[in-house]
Amino acid sequence: MTSGKPIRVLIADDHPIVRAGLRAVVESAPDIVVVGEASTGDEAVSAVRSSLADGIHDGIDLVLMDLRFGDAPGSTTRAGGVDATSAIRSLARDGHKAPEVLVVTNYSSDSDVLGAITAGAVGYLLKDTDPAELIDGIRRAARGETVLSNQVAGRLMGRMRDPITALTARELEVLELVAAGMSNRKIAEHLVLTEATVKSHLVHIFTKLGVSSRTAAVARAQERGILGD
After folding, report:
1. What is the pLDDT of residues 116-131, one digit of tens each?
2. What is the pTM assigned to this prediction?
3. Do 47 and 20 touch, CB atoms closer than 8 A?
């Protein structure tokens, strides 16, 4: 971004009161402006796509992205935020870079954090973050710097220190679907895998978590904060 130019932020969250609160905090900084709001991940993607299609250079510098938009009963976790982040980060075109995405959410399980970062989020903050920390995080994220809350950074360091017991991204996906009540066959269909591959992932999950059943695996993962409750 050009020096002296305000950071242009899009707020994506399904709760109006949260969007209003984030707007109030963000606009308290003289160098940051809110250029739009979105109540769904799709709306956020559309807003970014429109700004790029209109040829507005740096029309949106940063998207503050919620992770879950109106979870439906029986749905898997993340409900939109991860997919929206991935879609936004793939929208660079005609020399215009895609906005950075800074996740601001209530959820801090391994599966949530790993999903967001894998999708291309530059940072991950929790909604109880101090306003000053949020403002600083926005400034750093807009420059492309990694921004993590202390709790999230601690989780990632834990995965690095104990890589043997850390679940892979695919194992986390399988475990999330187990927690959602899916059978091995349904999981295989959902992830486009064979049932044998799903069973192999489950064996690795059971071994890493020190359990011998699907129910115990979900319970242990929730105890450790690997999965959200």
Report:
1. 888 889 999 999 999 9
2. 0.70
3. no
